[in-house]
## 1
Amino acid sequence: MRETVIFILLTGVITMTRADDCQAVNFGHGSVVCVCNATFCDSVGRIVLPGPGQFLSYVSSKTGSRLVRSQGQFQKNGTGAALRITLNPSQKYQRIKGFGGAMTDAAAMNIQSLSSGAQDQLLRQYFSPDGIEYRFVRVPMASCDFSTRLYTYADTPGDYDLKNFTLAEEDVHMKIPLLQRAQALSAKPLNLFASAWSAPAWLKTNGALTGKGTLKGKPGGREHKTWAQYYIRFLEEYQKYNLSFWGLTSGNEPTAGEMTNYSFQALGFTPETQRDWIALDLGPGLHSSSFSQTRLMILDDNRILLPHWAKVVLSDIQAARYVHGIGFHWYLNKIAPADITLTATHHLYPEYFLFGTEACAGWDPLDRGVRLGSWDRAEDYAHDIIQDLNNYVTGWTDWNLALNQDGGPNWVKNFVDSTIIVDSSKDIFYKQPTFYSMAHFSKFLWEESQRVGVSFSQHTSLEVSAYIRSDASAVLIILNRSDEEVQFEVWDQTLGFLPGSAPPHSILTLLWSRR
């Protein structure tokens, strides 16, 4: 048995076991958070596949398990479990690109509010081989709601040639140094992608960064070409700091500035105006620049807009030739079924990848802000990721990498939750249950992992997604949102039967070598 030491921290009780275990604190929101500081943080560590015929299991649960590892043996005969999950590797679907989060101004401020040692610890949790190995980072171009002020990089009226284009102090002193440190920790190059919230006010019809407003003029005109060049100038400036971008989106939530009087930064596009701006301005601009290989994602808005938005943009041959993928957000998903949005879009345009570009808990006005230890939110994450992946999505990006205990800073007080919450007054940070939801995917689903088929011997409440990785190993991710433990067996025709059990309210990742 493990020796257990119990002591008090803040308002909760910590149960500390081995050096690599979660230091758990319960704030009364259904489960626990794991507390980290400059000298200690639980870590999943580096994963080594066991020998032939053996499997690894990692489980996180409402009761407090966090990526708890165990090892088992395949059996030649069935286990007698009523539920058999059969792996069907011959059924091949999309390949995975990866998972990540956003380096907003707020995230950078919160990370930098910690001591140097605690900062390193936090970045290691996300990006190092001992952490959960995020591969993607979304970077806002200039300010968004998770900034402390309104700004763009070209706020000089009439500067159509962008002669005064200048990165902000938030880029130079916060986001860029942290991105460089994250890259240094990562075993592979990070895939950065950028999204802009608003064009400079002088380029817009409403003369403001916020509210309902679009670009002045028409696609092909002076304002639209300047806005396209703004993207290229951003890439050029970041390149000076040895940071290159895997991709861009055509603009954050274009419907926000088109259909509503938004309270924070927005730039309106319809699918028709986005199509024409890409065809006439952004696409040709990127193509003729040194960033022609940068991947362009359209939409970057809620999936309820699919497949219509994709049809409008991608049915135009001039626009479609510059587009690589379709980015979408998770808000309003409850009224936008995945099959009639994501799968329908994939079948119409299979050559364009689908990619989740933003999600966060705590955005709903009925359940607002930070909930330290909320397991319901962890299940919401895992459910949405599995649903997306099972409907042809190639990756999933969380929103802010770190927020404070208020869910900010946010200049418009649009406070939400985050997978890591920082308490700078104590030089600590909390890893939320949602952090571990992300880990069950980002740690195990390598780039180019291919989703494969699964079938079930009977109806089940379990939510399952299966993959074959580049080394021929298999990964099975299982979510149990029910109150009951579910016994099952996995049938792999090359190895036999894997005996398994999904505890109530748990996320389970199984992996094994098929060679």
## 2
Amino acid sequence: MAGRIPAEFIDEVREKTNIVDVVSQYVQLKKQGKNLFGLCPFHEEKTPSFSVAEDKQIFNCFSCHRGGNVFKFLMEIEDISFPEAVLKVADFSDIQLPQQLSEQKVDVEHSQAQQLRQVYESVQQLYTHVLLKTKVGEPALDYLQKRDLDEAAINEFGLGFAPNETDLLLKFLQNRKVSRELLVRSGLFVQRQDGQLMDRFRNRVMFPILDQGGHVIAFSGRILVKSEKEPKYLNSPETEIFQKREVLYHFSQAKQTIRQTSTAYLFEGFMDVISAFRAGVQNGVASMGTSLTTQQLYLLSRITRKLIISYDGDEPGQNAIADALELVKNKPFEVGVVMLPDGQDPDEYIKAHGSEAFKKQLADHVLTPIAFQLQRLAAQYNFSIDSERLGYVQAALQQLVTIESTVEQDLYLRQIADQANVDLTALKTEFENASRQYQRKQRAEKRQTRLTQPTDPTPPPVFNVVLNRTEISERRLLNLAITDERLCQQLLSDESFTFSNPHIQNLFLQWQEYLKTPGEHQVAGFTDHLEPEMQKLLLEIEMSDIPDQISDDEINDYIQNIQAARIDSRMQQAQQQIRQAAAQGDEDAQTKWLNELLQLKRQLSQ
């Protein structure tokens, strides 16, 4: 645009938006004391260190030290510019744009990541147009309609078609003046030996892949005509905006329902997610055609603790469930498994039995991980043969020793006894022996790990630094001065007062300058005026655990502690000068600094 976003509009958007509402779109927050806490969306962690202060409208992670106001949060998590973040928050809060903004585009220096997103967005629109509006797209449209997908579903999921042409997309983007460098980086093309680019996706139904902010960042193309030479599904290669191990299909659309229901359904394929959505299950996601990853689980763990896995019922699907359960067993999830009858996948089951029957399966036929493993084991044995029954019992007990709940153990021991037709008392004795062996093995493995694991010579970074009395006093006093105008003026009027920490003194002076700007003066707005390092210090101070009620006597103690620390520092300097003067035989200088030291001692004793 010709001008910048007006400061008054930025203030209005920030003041009318609750940062908790925005952050909650990405992080599951829980009240803890004054603030809300959750797992940090910027790095993987097991213990929540990400905090949001609703009263101050700021966030901060005490581990990775990212922090700021609502605009900074969106800039960090979606990799967008400040103007883009302002407009996105305004849209979120339904705040009408000023006329000068609504009539013209925002003039921003687009990042490379943003340029890639724009390319992918325009390509998705092209593929959908080809599918719905052209003759060449009719075979793909017929295919989707035979799978019960109407135009509404196609538009909902942004489906499209890449025709069997080598340069349709290339010409489309070249006409839009997209640079060759960006075309190569996009991953949408393959480069021949002569350097010529040609479309990567040809004769494929296209499924756009979105990041957690809802931007198109990749595609997965399903081949329309089966071929032995080409894979059934072809994914975009990884780029700076797309790493398949970190992306879940349909996550951005499903996350609101996941939060509302506190449950996520993990399906195996794109069509399963789409069919489930059309059946009324809108909180379904799928991994990117590969095994489930820890990064994808962490993405889910930020917004829910309940995960239901419903993969295909065939043998590969069951193996994939077993792998997923192994990966998730040490993660903070309540996990369930739904096995659809007759080895069907969700898409097949819905077509055969309807939406209501499918939702009933998801609600009423959830297996625990152990129940799934036992059911899977049972299918591998012939219970009419004694040796097979004993083999099942031994294998089942090896599964059972891994769970800690004695109630669960008792429940499944009874089921195993009934199924294998063995005496329950004898089975419990056998289980106790197996349990002791398992525990001995675990202890031995831990000892071996301690003996063989190399010692890391680099100590881990220390985030929770212990502060001395003066440092605590300075931080609390600055925190109070920012919120209490009377105290702020008191400190300014005392010419002898200054913070001993130069960074805190700098923050105090910058706050005074910020107070001279028009409009409301809040910490959330102040952060926009600070350099990154100063912003980190401010957020650390503002998010610290400071008592709600602090008396005037305590405030005076803080001031005295700071002044005493400054005098003590000057005394140390005077003592150093005295020693230096004595070593040089300079009696005049020695006398001067002795007098200085005496005066400082008198000040300290007052």
## 3
Amino acid sequence: MGDLILNINLKESVKFKKPVIETYSGKIKKLKNKTFSGPLMKIDIDCNDNYNNIYSEELSNIKNIILSNGNSKISKYKYIFDEKNFIDLIQYTYDKKNLYFTSKDAKMHQIDDVLSIDEIYYKPNNGKANFFYTDTKKQNIEVKTFNMCAFSSMSLVYDNNKLIIIYKLLNRQFLDRMKIQKFKLNNKSEEDISKEMYVLENEIGHSNQDYYNIEPEPILYIVFKSDKIYGKLYFNYDGMEIKSNSNIQLINLLGKKYYRNLAIENKYINILNINFGDKFKENIFMYKENKALDSSINYLLQNKFVIYTEDKKRVFTSSSMNFSIDYNINWFEINGDIKFNNKTYKLAELLDLKAKNTRFIEINNSVLILPKFINDQKKYLNKDCKKVAIPKRKIGEVMELADEMKIGNINNLHELIHYVDIKNNLPKKFLQKLRDYQIKGIEWLKYLYINGFGGCLADDMGLGKTIQAIGFLSDKEFDANNSITFIVVPKTLLSNWKKEINRFNKSLHVEIYYGSSRVEILKNINMHKGIFLTTYGTVLNDINNLLNISIDCLILDEVQYIKILSQKLIMQ
């Protein structure tokens, strides 16, 4: 386990005009030049790691400061700090010898001491300017190097392993000029030059009547292209939209001057990266298909994003949704109210609207994104009745849907006949031939039939699937001789099925629907009901005639053949 290292990045701090702290893990060595040497690993301070140089309580306090309100996380290991939080972190950590400063030479220098002063001053020396500050012992200390950056209320200077916090704003350009050129008064008083050492607030874009410092509004345009979703990010400064990757720093709009707030912009970029998709080109973000689009959009809206489609239609998610599911004789009916733009719509009404993209519902020049599990129900919309009715056989899907909709109870579901309430009504002689698990299988088939469901009996080979099917057909409540049942089997099993039916229940009327005899059978099928054995090939040939028959029960043996049958039907 390495040591926790906190680094002040000069270049990034100058860029964002706010302190930028980086979090690393590495081995801190005691070197004479007090620069860091060795490999560094970027770390997320929010992870549950421990470090050799910090106690758990100290680590907890450091985390609380770094993750507190006012700071912005712009990458896994990089944070833009509120100035007060920055001072708190410096005061808490510098004596632990894990605080560093990356200077102009790109080296990480350990900070031995932190000083807070009110100002620096200069003294002319042989035509050059030397700069000094007064420390706590009233000593005059010369500043040798100006590794510095200015913020809204203070300046940072790193010099000789000391971090100097000056509660005035230093004019970096002026100081650099003074150090490079020979020092001359140029007919200016020393007082005038002293003033030029410090930058006026309006020069860095803070609270001056000639300059305005406003928070940018993030604007995301959603674009559909080649079955992919992209987001183009802009920032709105008082009506002027700027690309997120633009090099513009100063905005002059209708006589007002704005400095871009890059720290806030990066906070929004980070939110977009995590909750919509990764930035992959300039100001374009690719949507992560594994995330729910409505949830991602909703999160962005909650975080002050304004979202449009490419043709400038405002995108919303529903402000509230209330759903219920009713169980009826042959279907489950979904009812719901969805509130959008202060107006309430019925679910069926929304699903019936035509949208350019199935993810979006266009209403009055705005766009509503429905949850995916709701949008998927379009296929069940009964346009005549204005109802969303899901067939009863889809009970599994309905239960999943109820869970996603957070519906605790389905109305009238008690009318569904439960498996535990199913009792067999088999002839005694037949019942005596069955094993317990076969009886349960027959009762399960009866449960499916009574409730109008389909099912797959998939016992292992030799456990009696055929006898369980014959058992269901023998149940007196089903009354097979007064119903029409088709059993579809491979051609080689036609005779075997008829033999097995006659063996276990001779009272059942069974015919083979195959060959030339099937024409006569088809003519009289409604008068001579019963069980009809046929093949997959015959079904394929006679599909149009068979579709006109009201079949009460359909049993498929060796059901994998249905794939071949389906493919042939599609080709016809």
